[in-house]
Structure formats: structure tokens, C-alpha cells
Design a protein that fits this description.
This protein is an all-alpha fold. It contains 18 helices and no strands. Among the domains are: about 70 residues; about 160 residues, Tetracycline Repressor, domain 2. It comes from Cuscuta campestris. This is MHD2 domain-containing protein.
């Protein structure tokens, strides 16, 4: 053939390439989805093209242009690009199906702690299962470019899981929405407070409520049982996402795409798997735990806490009823929430109840008032409160309890302080913060703003102790300087 044409082999190869290319175009146009047969044909076409190009180059080695003109006439099959497009379409289809599945199952989820032994939402378990199966199916695809196309799949799965997680925590509330609104400052009408309550015949009795946490109320998707299930679900998801990431790296290695020496570099090259979902889990557990804590303290137990504790007479409305019911709540949490997040939830309950005590002492509504003598009773109640969470060493760590007790202990010190000393301390704080020393004695003191950061060295905190002080000296001081309305 060389006698008839100097590049006979090259011409024959180019002709074969064109003919096969035309047939391949017809085949590709008929392929609508990724199938093993389609991938096999495309991989074979890619190998054929590479061999044909090698033959053409070898045949034209002695030609003037080295066979460049001939090679340029061979329009590439682009088989790898076709495979890549088919895989991307496969990924988009799988991700869209998962997204629809997540939305549908979330609408049916009732967050029942008795649904399974792990006390997690079936929808969460199924979402993890579908993601796992999708990854397995991806690695079973007979393609040579798993590492290049895996990030797109992982990103799609990550966003689906993130959507699920955000829905799990959506609408659960927050400390700011579950805490009672801060009432306006008022002064205590010394010597008449208890008479008012007697006149209205408001007994210091506890309204009884039966807390049946084992009964799931489908009308309240954010009851304590449901919140516990939501917390468990996010914890399990967070843990399983790490497992899926490690399994993905192993599958890459087993598929022959990664050699053993590159194992340590795989996470860096692929990027952090499920980064959005993991971050959402961490934030979601935090939000759900706080919501559960504040809902328990300020909603579920309001009848023995916010609406009862120290209302009227301090000695006849003490903390014992609240602690009795709170103990039942803690038992339920301990038996329901996963042990790896249980301490966090119980800690949040403690923090919420401690914050509630501060609000009752400094911003209690309905009206409360405290004498210096009441301070010992309140302090004893707080000791009982702390003991519940300490639980003879079987509960929270002592240093953790002490850390969150600091503010209350500071306020208890103010409750023990006599009125004249409190007034002196308040004057000093006002001078340090507002410097009104140049004003006349008849001018009323500036009203320090409510910051919510309660502290013995914060002017508004000391002022509130004076407003809740049940004696004539405090009432006279408040009236002279602020003329606040009296509690009724």
C-alpha cells in the first residue's frame, strides 16, 4: 500500500475513524440514561480512538508535518466527555429523587420516641440509607473517572441532607422566644403586698398537671418527646456522616482510583465530605437542646415555676413542687436522649432554670417581693436546686454547676445585703457609670437600662433588687428617684 500512497495506513485509519465516529454519534443520540452497555461501548470507543491515533502517528513519522494534518482531520469521539455528561445526569436524577423523598417523608414524620429502639426518627434513618445506597451505586458504575465526578455527587447529597437537618430544627423556638417578656420596672408597696393577696383570696396552692411524656401528641411536633427524638436523630446523622466519609475513601481505593500511598491525601483532594450537613447538625443539636430546656422550664413547668415560685409569700410558695416535677423531666431525658448528647441537654435545662430563677428574683411577674429575711429561704431553695443536678455525684460535674451558679450567687449576696448598703452601692455604681456628681440633690438619678446581664456590679441589677425589696426604705428611695408605678 505504501507504493500507492505514502501514508496509506494513516489514511485507512482516518477513514475508519470517520466511519466509526458517524456510527458512534447515532448511538450516543439514542442513549438517554447511563447503562452498563452504554458505558462499555463508550469506553471501547475511547480505547479504539487512542489506538487509531497511535497508528496514524506512527505511519506519518517520516512525513513533513509528522502527520499533523491527518490527525486534525480525525474529529475526536469525546467518549469520556459523553460518559461524564451521562454520569452527571445520573447524579442529578438521584439527588432530585432524594430531595423529593426527604420532603415527602418529613411531612409524615411524627417524631415518636417509641418508633424504634434507638429513639430516632425513621425518616432520618431512611435518609442515611438512601445516601449510602446512592454512593454504593455510584462506585458500581463501570467508569474510569470516579474521583473526578464524586465531588458533584457528594455536594448534591450534602445539600439534601442539610435540607433535612434544617427542617428537623425549623420552628423549634429559641431561648428568646420561649422566655417570658421582661416586665416594666415597678416598685414594691411595702407593708401592703400580702394584704392585697389575702384580699383577692389567691391561695398559694400548686396547679396540678400530669406530665405524660410517653404519650406522643401528634398536634405538638415540638413537645419534649419530639424534641428529644429530633436531637437523637441529628446526633446519629452526625455520627453516620463520618462513617460514610471514611467508607467513601475506602471505596475509592478499592475501585483502583487511589493507590495506598495517596490515602492520606484523599480528603484534601476531594474536599470535606458533608461539610454543610455536619455544620448544620452541630448547630441544630444546640438549638434543639436549648429549645427543649427553655420549653420545659418556662412552658411545661410554668405552673410550678414562673406562675408560682415566690408569688405572694416566699415561705409558702417555695421551690419544692418545681424540683419534684423537674426531676421527672430529667428522668425522661436521661432515658430518652442518646448518652453522648444527654449531658448537653441536661446542662441546658439547668442553665434555663437558673436563668429563670434570676428572672423571678429580678423581674418576676406576677408580683414578687423579698425581704432581707427571705434571702436565707431563697438561698436554701437554690441549694436544693443545685443538689438536683448534682445528684450525689451521679449528675452533672460540680465545676460545671459552679460555673453556671456564679450569677445567682451574686444576686443572693445582694438579697442578703441590707437596704441602706444596697442604696449606697447603687449610688457608687451610678457615679462610676454616669457621673452625676455635679447635679443637685433634688435631681432624680438616671435610670440604668436593662441589659439582661445580671451582676452585683451592674446598676440595673442592683436597682431591680431594690424594686423587689419589701421594706419602706427601698420603697421611699425608688419613689424619690424614679417614681415607678407600684405593684398590684
Amino acid at each position: 500500500m505504501k507504493r500507492h500512497h505514502s501514508l496509506a495506513t494513516g489514511v485507512a485509519v482516518a477513514t475508519l475513524h470517520v466511519c466509526f465516529g458517524n456510527e458512534l454519534k447515532k448511538f450516543v443520540s439514542s442513549v438517554n440514561e447511563l447503562t452498563p452497555d452504554a458505558v462499555q461501548v463508550l469506553i471501547a470507543a475511547d480505547k479504539l480512538e487512542k489506538n487509531l491515533v497511535k497508528m496514524a502517528v506512527a505511519d506519518a513519522e517520516d512525513s513533513d508535518d509528522g502527520g499533523k494534518a491527518l490527525i486534525q482531520e480525525m474529529i475526536p469521539f469525546e467518549a469520556e466527555a459523553v460518559i461524564s455528561d451521562l454520569v452527571k445526569s445520573w447524579v442529578r436524577t438521584r439527588v432530585e429523587r432524594l430531595r423529593e423523598w426527604v420532603d415527602r417523608n418529613l411531612q409524615q414524620e411524627i417524631w415518636n420516641p417509641q418508633a424504634n429502639q434507638e429513639r430516632v426518627a425513621p425518616s432520618g434513618v431512611e435518609t442515611l440509607r438512601v445516601i449510602d445506597e446512592t454512593l454504593e451505586a455510584f462506585f458500581l458504575l463501570p467508569i474510569p473517572m470516579h474521583p473526578a465526578l464524586l465531588p458533584e455527587l457528594m455536594n448534591g447529597l450534602d445539600r439534601c441532607m442539610q435540607s433535612y437537618i434544617l427542617n428537623v430544627q425549623s420552628g423549634c423556638g429559641s431561648p428568646s422566644t420561649l422566655t417570658p417578656a421582661m416586665p416594666a420596672l415597678t416598685s414594691c408597696a411595702a407593708g401592703t403586698k400580702h394584704g392585697v393577696f389575702k384580699k383577692k383570696e389567691k391561695p398559694n396552692t400548686v396547679q396540678q398537671k400530669n406530665l405524660h411524656f410517653s404519650d406522643v401528641d401528634s398536634t405538638d411536633p415540638f413537645g419534649l418527646p419530639q424534641l428529644c427524638v429530633r436531637i437523637n436523630t441529628l446526633h446519629v446523622i452526625r455520627k453516620q456522616l463520618d462513617v460514610l466519609e471514611k467508607r467513601t475513601i475506602l471505596q475509592l481505593r478499592d475501585s483502583g482510583c487511589v493507590v495506598d500511598d495517596d490515602d492520606d491525601n484523599v480528603p484534601n483532594r476531594l474536599g470535606r465530605s458533608f461539610e454543610l450537613s455536619i455544620s448544620a447538625c452541630v448547630q441544630g443539636i444546640k438549638q434543639l437542646s436549648e429549645a427543649a430546656a427553655y420549653k420545659v422550664v418556662f412552658r411545661d413547668l410554668s405552673h410550678v415555676f414562673w406562675d408560682y415560685l415566690y408569688v405572694g409569700n416566699v415561705s409558702s410558695s417555695r421551690i419544692e413542687p418545681f424540683l419534684q416535677e423537674l426531676d421527672l423531666v430529667l428522668e425522661f431525658i436521661s432515658s430518652t436522649v442518646h448518652d453522648r448528647v444527654r449531658t448537653r441537654v441536661i446542662t441546658d435545662v439547668m442553665k434555663a432554670s437558673f436563668e429563670g430563677i434570676l428572672l423571678i428574683l429580678l423581674a418576676g411577674d406576677p408580683p414578687r417581693a423579698f425581704s432581707v429575711q427571705d434571702a436565707a429561704t431563697v438561698e436554701e431553695d437554690f441549694k436544693f436546686h443545685v443538689d438536683l443536678f448534682w445528684s450525689d455525684g451521679h449528675g452533672l460535674q460540680a465545676d460545671l454547676i459552679d460555673k453556671h451558679s456564679v450569677n445567682i450567687k451574686g444576686i443572693l449576696h445582694l438579697l442578703h445585703t441590707d437596704t441602706e448598703s444596697l442604696i449606697t452601692q447603687f449610688h457608687l455604681l451610678i457615679e462610676d457609670n454616669y457621673n452625676p456628681s455635679g447635679k443637685t440633690g433634688k435631681t432624680m438619678l438616671p435610670l440604668p437600662p436593662t441589659t439582661g446581664h445580671w451582676s452585683p456590679t451592674e446598676p440595673n441589677t442592683v436597682l431591680r433588687v431594690l424594686c423587689h425589696r419589701n421594706d419602706k426604705a427601698a420603697t421611699k428611695f425608688i419613689k424619690k428617684n424614679y417614681n415607678l408605678p407600684k405593684k398590684l
